[in-house]
Each structure stands twice: as C-alpha cells, then as structure tokens.
C-alpha cells in the first residue's frame, strides 16, 4: 500500500503561483511513476505531469509546459508541483497519484487539494 497526502492548494489571483506537495508513505520503494492530475467541475480528470522514479524522467501536458514544474525530494518521499502564471482555467481539484512497479495505470490516489484561481 502507498498512502498519498496532498497539500498546498488555495486561492490565488490570476498570474500568481502555488506549490503543491504530495507526501508518500507506505511501500514507496515500489513506486514506478508519480503523477499529478486535475479535475475541474463538470469536466473529466486530466493529466498534468508525471515523473518516473528510475530513471528520472518528467513529462507534462502540453498546456502546462513552461508554467508547471514537477520535482521531488527523495529524503522526504515527497513530490511537488510548482505552478506559475496561473490562469482561471487552472481552477480544479489537483490529485497526486502513484503507479507501482508492474502496474500499467496509476493505482494509488490522494484525496485531492483545491486550487482556485480568481480573475
């Protein structure tokens, strides 16, 4: 089992920044990928960014490239999502997810953290 706890969401004005955190615990050595997803009201959940653990490789959704940066702290078993130049359309619940070795999809999810960007 892998437990994921997100934090760092909140209300920010357009053009502002937020940094989300996702602390992982449990069987973290079995992690293959960590990812961020988001879901806006009335919309499907969408991919934001992901990072492969070994070898390290990060990828982003096209609309987030250049504005969002995913990083990690090995010692803290934590991944981060730095979000800059936020837009009202970035408003959503942001979820952290983990895909463990041998799995083909994300199989662990956090509870989500709300990000609201005002215009």
Low-confidence stretches: none
Q: What is the structural class?
A: mainly beta
Gap between N and C termini: 40 Å
Major sheet summary line: 7 strands, mixed
H/E topology pattern? EEEEEEEEEEE
How many strands appear in the DSSP assignment? 11
Radius of gyration: 14 Å
pLDDT average, as an integer?
A: 94
Number of continuous helical runs: 0
Taken from the alpha-carbon principal axes, the silhouette is globular
- Which band does the percent of strand residues land in? over 45%
Helix content: under 10%
Describe the structure.
The protein has strands at residues 2-7, 10-13, 18-26, 31-39, 46-52, 57-60, 68-73, 78-83, 92-100, 108-109, 113-118. The strands form 2 sheets. Strands 2, 4, 5, 6, 9, 10 and 11 form a 7-stranded mixed beta sheet that branches. A 4-stranded antiparallel beta sheet has the order 1-3-8-7, with no helix packed on it. The N and C termini lie far apart (40 Å). By secondary structure, it is an all-beta fold.
